[in-house]
Write a structure and sequence with these properties.
Layout lengths: L13 E4 L10 H7 L8 E3 L3 E2 L9 E4 L5 E3 L12 E2 L2 E2 L6 E2 L1 H14 L4 E5 L1 H14 L17 E5 L17 E6 L7 H8 L5 E6 L9 H12 L18
Parallel strand pairs: 1-2, 1-9, 9-10, 10-11, 11-12
Antiparallel strand pairs: 3-6, 4-5, 7-8
Length: 246
């Protein structure tokens, strides 16, 4: 586990999780680069599950703001950038291996520091959904009881799915922002919609791309304004923040 940054995002401090897989090929460092620059002050963590790839892909690096690979002359992964995940699945994604270990990692971080929100991508967003539920009602999981961290004020859950093992204990009350790619072939809109339906106060924004977090200027401004709308020092409300232009 590595902390990418310890700088505050305005008055708020979000916690960021990436999902790493053979399709996504990202560690916390690359996740921090791929998300909008205005979110780079968040604390980004690597998952505890080390994913071993048979070969390192050559000639590709991070993704650009449209989701296309940026050519590189060096291998994608250095030793410290080996892809990691938060758990592994069985074939039909009904049983998770390592989820409890991921919860223990998160508990150790949340016991030491305070965070206002969570930003998660793909499997990392499913983990973020778990944390929202457990922090709202610590009695729903023994690792989070008694309470040691307040509930999050917000959650950004991008390209995610409804976690199943264990199932979410109840509807998530934390205000959530769901980012869904219309052309996401890894986790489709219908699958992401199941997680939206498990939240009491969801906001959904679509982009034209695939399985990535959009990073165009309009999206960076949108994320910035939406997060800051939760600050007690602002009169803006999250629902009043305009959707990002295409």
């Amino acid at each position: 586990m590595r902390v990418y940054s310890e700088h505050r995002y305005g008055d708020y401090r979000p916690l960021g999780f990436s999902y790493t897989s053979e399709e996504l090929l990202s560690s916390s460092d690359m996740f921090a680069v791929n998300v909008p620059r205005t979110l780079n002050s968040a604390v980004f963590l690597d998952g505890p599950v080390l994913l071993h790839l048979p070969d390192q892909p050559q000639g590709f690096s991070i993704l650009d703001e449209d989701g296309f690979a940026i050519p590189s002359q060096t291998p994608l992964f250095e030793a410290e950038e080996t892809p990691r995940g938060w758990c592994t699945f069985n074939e039909d994604k009904t049983r998770y291996e390592g989820a409890e270990d991921a919860f223990r990692v998160m508990k150790s971080v949340l016991e030491r520091e305070r965070f206002d929100g969570v930003i998660g991508f793909s499997q990392g967003a499913a983990l973020g959904a778990y944390l929202c539920a457990f922090l709202e009602d610590p009695s729903t999981h023994p690792l989070f009881h008694p309470r040691f961290h307040p509930p999050f004020k917000f959650a950004i859950l991008a390209s995610s799915f409804l976690p199943a093992d264990p199932p979410l204990p109840k509807l998530i009350r934390t205000p959530t922002l769901h980012i869904i790619g219309k052309n996401d072939t890894h986790i489709g809109a219908a699958e992401s919609g199941l997680l939206v339906g498990a939240c009491e106060d969801p906001r959904v924004e679509f982009h034209e791309g695939g399985h990535f977090i959009p990073a165009k200027a309009t999206w960076r401004r949108f994320f910035h304004e939406w997060i800051l709308a939760f600050s007690p020092q602002t009169i803006a409300r999250p629902e009043d923040v305009s959707s990002p232009a295409p």
